[in-house]
């Protein structure tokens, strides 16, 4: 921990890893932690898949994964890659030839599962295709699909088996002089995932992709992912991540960014600090925050907004935010700008007014950033 950091208790010392590239996105080293999601449309439906990729990218996804289960999907992938605003990872299971076809179709990265991709000869063919087409590879170990010999050895899925699977596959890639790879060791069990990732981080300098696989629906999956990924990120482990939810991929991206924002590891859009509300609130906090979240989705500039129902914590929270509103009495509250009380505003006009103030502040921050370049 750096003693020179202005708030040393907030400092995260990221694990040192090699840097690779997924298309034009750097992964590992000192690159920002990349947020990833996966489409759930039929890959052969190019229009629907491209629309989902574009929506995810607009929400902030740096990388999007697309399943390639059959030859028709391989053919569709070429057009998807051409129209995608972000690098595409081809998700390959069972059929190694799909990996070769995906590389030829322009995928930026191939995700292969050691538990079902086939023997070393088949992996070697995928590696050759990746080299020929400038693809990186993600070794995607999953507790639910470990190799039989490892299940026989350990008796059940466990962190040691997952890490051994990943290291065995790393050896294959390195034996074929291939080094543009990252690795994940996912499980649906938070404890198993965390233990496996900690062991993996000690065993390799490869970039690590984080995930709690099959985490569940929006609420339960968000909580499991926040716990599992949050503790690993806090320890400095992780170079890319995906929040796996039974929900719209856009929601995965939003949750991923919120996890990173809460740890100060990525900054994008408006970070709203709001109270849970109580009988002291001077306006409807919950409805106001729901409205502002939707109204401010278009703002990509990193900034903070406090929405607090009363003066118990409102002024104190506003000191630390770019824009703030604290509930008062007689149907109005106080607007704070740059941490200082600025002017009163009626509750019935405050949403439109806050949106205007946030947009003005975002434009100012953008102009300052452009001038500094």
TrEMBL record:
Q: What is its EC number?
A: 1.17.7.3
Write the record's keywords in alphabetical order, separated by commas. Answer: 4Fe-4S, Iron, Iron-sulfur, Isoprene biosynthesis, Metal-binding, Oxidoreductase
Q: Where in this chain does the record put each IspG C-terminal domain?
A: 271-360
Q: Which residues form the IspG TIM-barrel domain?
A: 17-256
Q: How is the cofactor bound?
A: Binds 1 [4Fe-4S] cluster.
Q: Tell me which residues bind [4Fe-4S] cluster.
A: 275, 278, 310, 317
The pathway it acts in is: Isoprenoid biosynthesis; isopentenyl diphosphate biosynthesis via DXP pathway; isopentenyl diphosphate from 1-deoxy-D-xylulose 5-phosphate: step 5/6
Highest taxon, organism lineage: Bacteria
UniProt xrefs under InterPro entries: Dihydropteroate_synth-like_sf, IspG_bac, IspG_bac-typ, IspG_C, IspG_TIM, NO2/SO3_Rdtase_4Fe4S_sf
Query: What catalytic activity does the UniProt entry give for this protein?
Result: (2E)-4-hydroxy-3-methylbut-2-enyl diphosphate + oxidized [flavodoxin] + H2O + 2 H(+) = 2-C-methyl-D-erythritol 2,4-cyclic diphosphate + reduced [flavodoxin]
Q: Which GO terms describe its biological process?
A: isopentenyl diphosphate biosynthetic process, methylerythritol 4-phosphate pathway; terpenoid biosynthetic process
Supply one GO molecular-function term: 4-hydroxy-3-methylbut-2-enyl-diphosphate synthase activity (flavodoxin)
Q: According to its UniProt record, which protein family does this protein belong to? A: Belongs to the IspG family.
Explain the purpose of this protein.
Converts 2C-methyl-D-erythritol 2,4-cyclodiphosphate (ME-2,4cPP) into 1-hydroxy-2-methyl-2-(E)-butenyl 4-diphosphate.
Q: What is this protein called?
A: 4-hydroxy-3-methylbut-2-en-1-yl diphosphate synthase (flavodoxin)
Q: What organism does the record attribute this protein to?
A: Phaeobacter piscinae
- Gene encoding this polypeptide? ispG
